[in-house]
Design a protein that fits this description.
This protein is an alpha/beta fold. The chain is built from 19 helices and 16 strands. Helix 5 (65-73) packs across helix 9 (117-130). The longest helix is centred in the C-terminal third of the chain and has 22 residues, at 454-475. It is globular and about 70 Å long. The protein starts with 5 loop residues before the first helix and ends with a helix. Bound molecules: flavin-adenine dinucleotide and iron/sulfur cluster.
Length: 476
């Protein structure tokens, strides 16, 4: 609970970002790190609130927040670390990337600013690495059974880590050259430097997990092979089939999907593509990003760092309010306007806009034909977009990036090979124990939930691992 009167004595203090002029020149992390004094003070703000909504309602992995806040306030870092790691396999990812629904549910946030829970979480795990408290800790003994985890994004990694720590042999397969999924290839280094990911992967390898990369399951490795060599399989292949915009002019060159754009730049920063310049670059171009979410914001930050002349980000939804609306009261996640560091760096956001056509010259995109949208609520209480008459306008563009979300996992070869039952959108159906329609084949993360958040992927990977353990123990 921190200090009795901490919430009355101290204000919320966020460490903020590196100066804009400096951070735009590189791809290094934009976040500044809170100093130790500030972390003690922020932990001291945690109240003895009775029901910790942050833990019980806000945090998808149910981090035991009041307890680690209290231990941090008292300088008991090892104990705080033990409590944090008992619910979250990778606090160094969530501590940097989680939108922190815990803070939206913090009791202090009802009439003042919430505790900086995410920063405290990050401080605890980083202190653990810094002080050498986190060392390879493989299980003393292993059961005979072995498990294959397919996909090394946060869901697959969380499942693998939980299973290995429980004494099961784990092999993780991934079709990419390096593990990490979207952590490695989607999220730019300015949000998550890849050395943070590599540190964790190395630790997992030292603890006994085997990684088989550059292997596509369903194609290079069959269902039959996995069934023969493993006692259970956890599928965690993500949901990366991008939503397209099939309007006139879509076949022009210069219109790309967000992930294709981000993957190239991430590979370049990690020197995975050697000295080769990215094929898709925003350098010197007017860029239009279609889609106002996190992926769009990552494309905006990347385009600005590549030296784009101008960047527009278009969103079909109306601009959200600045204050928490009545529709999402505390402790719910508030539907308010969010500004990422990238939005503070440059570019122009346009709300309630639809794109009607792409127009080009010599086969390359040059303009977008757009119109303003009104959101009308029907008698069925469902809001639908309607074009406002007479509001058509054009935007110049040399590069258009489609960042309109993801429609499903794709992966049809694997799904056919495993004879899995997908839902209407192609996500893999699972029972309450996360087993698919096939005996011994479990599923976790975006592949079953749809594109979501890292913290949900971790929660899902942990749950699948627990179900696999129960399944294997039942067979004994
Ligand atoms: C650009 C972008 C930015 C994001 N930013 C944030 C953020 O800041 N905060 C946040 O909380 N969330 C963010 N998200 C969402 C978050 O990254 C995802 O919800 C999360 O990564 C899902 O984890 P996953 O393990 O289910 O899948 P993924 O991370 O997609 O990993 C799936 C893995 O499976 C592999 N794979 C697929 N098919 C096969 C196959 N047949 N054989 C072998 N391997 C296969 C893939 O190569 C991949 O490595 C972002 C998403 C995107 C796209
Ligand atoms: S994982 Fe996310 S929601 Fe949970 S405590 Fe950390 S920042 Fe908050």
């Amino acid at each position: 609970m921190g200090k009795d009167t901490g919430f009355l004595e101290y204000c919320r203090k966020d460490p903020g970002y590196r100066p804009k002029e400096e951070r735009l020149k590189d791809f290094k992390a934009v976040d500044l790190v809170a100093n130790e004094e500030d972390i003690y003070e922020q932990a001291a703000r945690c109240m003895d609130c009775g029901i910790p909504f942050c833990h019980a309602y806000g945090c998808p992995v149910a981090n035991i927040i009041p307890e680690f806040n209290d231990l941090v306030y008292r300088g008991q870092w090892q104990e705080a670390l033990d409590i944090l790691c008992s619910t979250n396999n990778f606090p160094e990812f969530t501590g940097r990337l989680c939108p922190a629904s815990c803070e939206a549910a913090c009791v202090a946030g009802i009439n003042t600013e919430p505790v900086t829970i995410r920063q405290i979480e990050l401080a605890v795990i980083e202190k653990g690495f810094e002080k050498g408290l986190i060392r390879p800790n493989p299980p003393a003994d292993y059961f005979d059974e072995s498990i294959a985890v397919i996909g090394s994004g946060p869901a697959g990694l969380a499942a693998a880590d939980t299973l290995n720590k429980s004494g099961y042999h784990v092999t993780v397969y991934d079709d990419a050259l390096h593990p990490g999924g979207i952590l490695r290839y989607g999220i730019p280094d300015f949000k998550l430097e890849k050395k943070v990911l590599k540190r964790r992967i190395n630790l997992m390898k030292d603890e006994g997990i085997v990684f088989e990369t550059d292997v596509r399951v369903g194609t290079d490795v069959s269902f039959k092979y996995l069934k023969k060599h493993f006692d259970a399989v956890c599928l965690a292949c993500g949901s990366r089939q991008p939503r397209d915009l099939p309007i006139p002019g879509r076949d022009l060159s210069g219109i790309v999907f967000a992930m294709d754009y981000l993957i190239q730049q991430n590979k370049k920063v990690s020197n995975e593509s050697g000295k080769q310049a990215p094929l898709i670059t925003a350098s010197g171009k007017t860029v239009v990003v279609i889609g106002g979410g996190d992926t769009g914001s990552d494309c905006l930050g990347t385009a600005l760092r590549q030296g784009a002349k101008n960047v527009f980000q278009l969103e079909i939804l109306p601009r959200p309010p600045l204050e928490r609306p009545d529709s999402t009261p505390w402790p719910k996640w508030p539907m308010t306007l969010r500004e990422s560091h990238a939005h503070k760096e440059g570019g122009q956001r346009k709300w309630a806009v639809t794109t009607k056509a792409f127009m080009g010259e010599k086969g390359a995109v040059k303009k977008l034909l757009c119109a303003e949208i009104a959101w009308i609520t029907g008698t069925d209480h469902v809001m639908r977009p309607e074009e406002k008459p007479g509001t058509e306008f054009q935007i110049e563009a040399d590069l258009v990036i489609l960042a309109m979300g993801f429609v499903g996992p794709g992966n049809s070869t694997l799904i056919d090979n495993f004879q899995l039952t997908p839902d209407k959108r192609g996500h893999i159906k699972a029972g309450r124990n996360m087993m698919t329609n096939m005996d011994g084949i479990f599923v976790a993360g975006d592949m079953t939930n749809g594109q979501s958040l890292i913290v949900h992927a971790i929660a899902s990977g942990r749950k699948a691992a627990q179900s696999i353990i129960a399944y294997l123990q039942e067979k004994h």
